[in-house]
Design brief:
Layout (H helix, E strand, L loop, with lengths): L3 E4 L14 H9 L4 E4 L9 H9 L6 E5 L2 H6 L6 H11 L8 E5 L9 H10 L5 E5 L4 H4 L1 H12 L4 E2 L2 E2 L11 H9 L15 E5 L4 H7 L1 H12 L5 E5 L6 H15 L19
Parallel strand pairs: 1-2, 1-9, 2-3, 3-4, 4-5, 5-6, 7-8, 8-9
């Protein structure tokens, strides 16, 4: 039984590790959180040596949930993608078990008529990885038959459906520049809380105010406790509009779960970025 928690990135100017050399920031992050969203791989497939450096900075049980390149998911829409997919899989090979789940984020225009294409794509993927799909077409959330059809395609290959919960964020108007910016960019979709596999993954967007963020994730506390007691090992990614406090919030979420599931292993204690002094 394990709960992994993390953020949308491993480096941010507001975080303690930002003062470290770039090649040390992931190591510092991994001493605070146990998973990270691999959003950068959406824009470009990294060099294999770069990925090897990521592996060197993390323990084998650290989880990278890496997004497939946009060439595969958005530009070619899962069709005729053998070459870019092969290049991506080769590049991330040094991560070994750290590449826990590969994340297939699909555009909002990818709708019910495209589910068959998704099914063909999933069936051709190597079984060396787990896979999780994030959809943004409203029909998958509002039409029961459409949702059931997607679930069946995912279940056939033991793939997860990743919800991006923005309901707490959109519950009231924005109050800061960061919130106003996120208001125009983040998807506004109905809440989905069903896990399909033993490794559910949740993306949660809170608010700038900590109390609002914590209030909004209480449903996920209850669900995560239930998943753990069922023997599942979930991963929770905490976002806020500016992400300044995201690692602290991710750790707080883990603490709330551990208060109700005491047998859950604690998170690592962060290593101070600067050496301690007597004065």
């Amino acid at each position: 039984m394990r709960l992994h928690v993390g953020c949308a990135m491993w480096s941010h100017r507001a975080w303690p590790g930002h003062g470290l050399p770039p090649h040390e920031r992931l190591r510092d992050y991994a001493a605070r959180c146990t998973a990270v969203e691999g959003n950068t791989t959406f824009y470009a497939t990294p060099a294999r040596q770069t990925v090897a450096n990521w592996a060197e900075q993390t323990d084998p049980d650290f989880r990278f949930v890496l997004k497939l390149p946009k060439t595969v998911t958005h530009e070619r829409r899962l069709t005729d993608v053998d070459a870019p997919l092969r290049a991506f899989l080769d590049a991330i090979e040094p991560l070994g078990p750290r590449a826990d789940t590969l994340w297939i984020q699909l555009p909002g225009s990818f709708g019910p008529a495209d589910v068959a294409t998704l099914g063909r794509f999933l069936r051709r993927l190597p079984t060396t990885h787990r896979y999780a799909v994030e959809v943004r077409h409203p029909a998958f959330f509002t039409d029961t038959a459409t949702a059931a059809g997607l679930e069946a395609v995912l279940a056939a290959v033991a793939a997860e459906w990743i919800p991006f919960d923005t309901t707490a964020f959109f519950a009231s108007p924005p109050t800061s520049d960061a919130e106003r910016d996120a208001w125009t960019k983040k998807p506004r979709l109905p809440l989905r809380t069903t896990a399909l596999t033993d490794r559910p993954i949740v993306r949660y967007l809170g608010r700038d105010a900590t109390e609002r963020t914590v209030e909004g994730w209480q449903r996920w506390v209850d669900l995560t406790v239930g998943w753990l007691r069922e023997g599942r090992s979930p991963t929770m990614f905490v976002h806020t509009p500016d992400n300044a406090d995201a690692p602290t919030l991710a750790r707080r979420f883990h603490d709330e779960i551990r208060a109700r599931v005491p047998e859950l292993a604690p998170l690592p204690e962060p290593i101070p970025v600067e050496p301690l002094t007597l004065f």
